[in-house]
Amino acid sequence: MNDAPIGVFDSGLGGLTVWSELRRKLPVESLVYYGDGKNCPYGDKSPEEVRKHVDFAVRRLLDRGVKLIVVACNAATAMAIDHLRETYPVPFVGLEPAVKPAALSSHSGVIGILATAATLKGRLFRETSQRYAGRVRILSRVGEGFVELVESNRENSDEAVETVRRQVEPMIEAGADRIVLGCTHYPFLVPAMRRVIGDRGAELVNPAAAVERHTEALLRELGLASGAGHAPRYEFMTSADEAYLCKLIAKSEEAATADFG
Ligand code: DGL
Predict the structure, then answer these.
(1) Catalytic residues
(2) In this structure, what is the dihedral angle of CA atoms 211, 214, 218, 220, given to the nearest 10 degrees?
(3) Which of 178, 194, 234, 236 has the most Cβ atoms closer than 10 angstroms to its Cβ?
(4) Is the CB of 94 under 6 A from ligand 1?
């Protein structure tokens, strides 16, 4: 038993889509969220640069006494997870696009993957997609402008629908019946995506529930779960300014009740 907090980390606000799932399903666990708002987005940065930012964030979370860190960022996982596991003495849970469940549940044999350029270029994604390439056709596209829409609270605008349409429409036209949200910011755009998809039956695949289950299993296995009566605390940290911290907290309240698909 261990009542220390779980660290949750992302380049910005996106990891809140994982944080909200952890909060819902692990109600006795304290959570410390770190959003690297000063350096967001990671998706177009070099692995060296991202590793530097991630190191800084992880050290701050370790200073807060976290017992496990969820890297709630596909891009950071792609570029830094091996380095993190080799360097720091806590368990890490990483995120990668949910190619497997999408490939196994697709009826049309075509799946779409939306992610940042860094994630799509990473070894993890290349290896997983090669594994399923014989089974389904995989269409991957960078969600150009998606992260910026979420970071500036414009995910519910008409502009968001048009930005999403540019990437999602070609996937639907090519017959995709599963669209994987391979960046933790993207679930905030689920309402815009649903407007684009309409009644054409494509399902959105959000990995947050699987990440929560994996975290829960790991806590149990390592004897790190909090005691049943533990009263959780939710804390937020950022590399950016006070205004960003306020935005992070407001967004967390929104995320706590949102339907991310
Ligand atoms: N939220 C991050 C992810 O899951 C990416 C956002 C960024 O480009 O920083 O990949």
Answers:
(1) 73, 183
(2) 110
(3) 178
(4) no
For the entire predicted model, the pTM comes to: 0.97
Is 6-94+208-255 a CATH 3.40.50.1860 domain?
A: yes
Instruction: Say how many Å lie between the CA of residue 41 and the centre of ligand 1.
Output: 6
Q: Give 115's strand partners.
A: 142
Q: Where in the chain do CATH 3.40.50.1860 domains reside?
A: 6-94+208-255, 99-205
Q: What tens digit of pLDDT does each residue of 182-192 get?
A: 999 999 999 99
Q: pLDDT digit string (tens) for 110-158?
A: 999 999 999 999 999 999 999 999 999 999 999 999 999 999 999 999 9
**Side-chain-facing half-sphere of 122: CA atoms under 13 Å:** 30
Q: Which of 70, 95, 114, 116 most suits a substitution to test ligand 1, by most atoms within 8 Å of the C-beta?
A: 116
Ligand 1 contacts CB of residue 161 (under 6 A): no
The CATH number corresponding to 99-205 among 3.40.50.720, 3.40.50.1860, 3.30.70.330, 3.20.20.370 equals 3.40.50.1860
- For 144, the token pair is 């150009």
